[in-house]
Write a structure and sequence with these properties.
The chain is mostly helical. The chain has a domain of about 170 residues. About 65% of the residues lie in helices and about 0% in strands. The protein contains 22 helices and 2 strands. A two-stranded antiparallel ribbon has the order 1-2. A hairpin with a 2-residue loop joins strand 1 and strand 2. Helix 1 packs antiparallel against helix 3 and helix 15 crosses helix 16. The longest helix has 26 residues.
């Protein structure tokens, strides 16, 4: 382990992050909400803390190994979330637990909140919450790799530890820094397109920018307590649903489509086709359910809410166009369950990722064929590419650990006195980076116990970093020289 290099990088990343706290100062000045000091103080503390960690090791030089990257990423997301709580703590009369919860939720793009009265909060703080999830969406570390060439080849280890999905070795460009820049360019362009579309659909510019941050990062925070239902607009809901689905796709695939100037790139990708098929199926099931149970009588509203809620839950965004918790229970639980699959690898979405679900499905079909034809030889292909047994073992291993972890977290929450339905919804909201709940947490997470909130923070981090990046730190083998 290169602890000196790890400390050096951690300090640098903290200093980089500290400058993001100055943006809300401009928002505070524009709206004259008088909330300058909270962000200036937070900026100063973050910058000084980063410098104190960086200075003793500023001359350290070493090539990062894979396990170094895991430690840096986990430490950085944990420390960053704690530091990110400062502006919230300095602005609002909340406990440190609640402030840290909100920060963890923002940076991990979970979008679960313990705050209320958002409509009356300072605009600068509302913007800061949205900015947290936007930075966390593509990953602050990926941003740092794009702008800190000093990371050199070691940046690949951070990239692999940070980027979600099972296919982390693929790069868009020969240099990892260029890959990080390409992803951020795509991310920025999609965000701008989303903001303009929201404005065109009827939002003011502040809400349009803030909700574009929330939508493209699949974060779920809103500037209003009622979330998207505040606007009660069909056009806004359709814009949101379209961009949530797009943000649930692989950003590397979007980049490839842009470079080749052809949508065919996405249409021929097996993961995107499976993802689109799932989304279409979910929308049909939910729309039929809404119609049969007369939840909505207007066909346009049926399609609007079915499409929006499926896009929100399916990508782990958590924005709401209506109170889905009041729908027939089978629809509410269906929405929670689809969040476990989530979006595509390389997207900002949460969950286990569509590519894993697709491989599990294809492997299950192969096993059924093998039962019918015991002596047959059936090669498993994903698209046109053969899938090796080692990849299948990794996928099944991840799915097994993910489900086991969800069950353990559920049992731990029930031990705090939470009923089983609420515990399941709470685990789905945090581990899948979903952010919205049903049952006892349908209206928010402020009533969760303090221990439960910290447990949720741990689950958010596990979900954002795809479980193994964090769990590997608790193995004896990891710490062996």
């Amino acid at each position: 382990m290169h602890f000196a290099m790890i400390a050096r990088i951690l300090g640098l990343l903290m200093m980089v992050f500290s400058f993001t706290m100055l943006t809300p100062v401009l928002v505070s000045w524009w709206f004259q909400d008088g909330n300058y000091s909270a962000f200036f103080i937070s900026f100063g503390i973050s910058l000084v803390a980063g410098m104190l960690i960086w200075l003793p090791f500023m001359k350290a030089r070493a090539e990062l190994q894979t396990r170094d990257g895991f430690l840096v990423v986990t430490l950085f997301w944990t420390v960053l979330s704690l530091i990110g709580a400062l502006p919230i703590l300095l602005t609002l009369d909340v406990s440190f637990t609640d402030a840290a919860f909100e920060s963890f939720s923002g940076l991990t793009t979970t979008g679960a909140t313990v705050l209320s009265g958002l409509d009356d909060m300072p605009k600068s703080l509302l913007f800061y919450r949205q900015q947290l999830q936007w930075l966390g969406g593509m990953g602050v570390i990926v941003l740092a790799i794009a702008i800190l060439p000093m990371l050199g080849i070691g940046g690949m280890q951070l990239y692999k530890a940070e980027i979600p999905g099972p296919m982390k070795e693929s790069k868009l460009t020969p240099r990892i820094a260029e890959t990080a820049k390409a992803l951020w360019y795509v991310y920025l362009v999609v965000t701008i397109m989303c903001a303009v579309s929201y404005w065109w659909a009827g939002m003011n510019w502040f809400d349009a920018i803030c909700h574009s941050f929330s939508t493209v990062s699949t974060g779920g925070f809103s500037t209003h307590d009622a979330s998207m239902a505040y606007f009660n607009s069909t056009s806004i809901d359709f814009v949101g649903a379209i961009f949530m689905v797009l943000s649930g796709a692989n950003f590397a695939l979007i980049y490839a489509m842009w470079r080749r100037r052809s949508p065919v790139v996405m249409l021929v990708d097996p993961e995107f086709r499976f993802y689109f098929g799932l989304m279409f199926t979910y929308v049909v099931i939910v729309a039929v359910g809404l119609w049969i149970f007369s939840v909505e009588s207007d066909p346009v509203n049926v399609l609007r809410h079915a499409f929006f809620q499926v896009a929100s839950f399916g990508t782990g965004t958590g924005l709401t166009s209506t109170n889905a918790a009041s729908w027939p229970s089978y629809l509410a639980y269906l929405l929670v369950l689809i969040s476990f699959i989530g979006g595509c690898a390389g997207s900002t979405a949460g969950g286990m990722k569509v590519v894993r679900a697709a491989l599990v499905f294809e492997h299950s079909l192969r096993e059924l064929r093998q039962l019918i034809y015991p002596h047959g030889i059936f090669a498993l292909r994903f698209g046109r590419r053969p899938v090796s047994d080692s990849v299948l073992q990794a996928v099944w291993g991840f799915v097994g650990v993910y489900i086991t972890l969800a069950m353990m977290l559920t049992l731990m929450l029930t031990a705090t006195g939470m009923d089983l339905s609420t515990a399941v919804a709470t685990v789905a909201a945090s581990l899948n980076n979903l952010g919205v709940g049903i049952a006892g947490v349908a209206s928010g997470f402020s009533e969760v116990t303090e221990f439960g909130k910290w447990l949720m923070c741990a689950a958010m981090l596990l979900g954002r970093l795809e479980v193994f990046t964090v769990l590997v730190l608790f193995t004896r083998m990891f710490w062996r020289q």
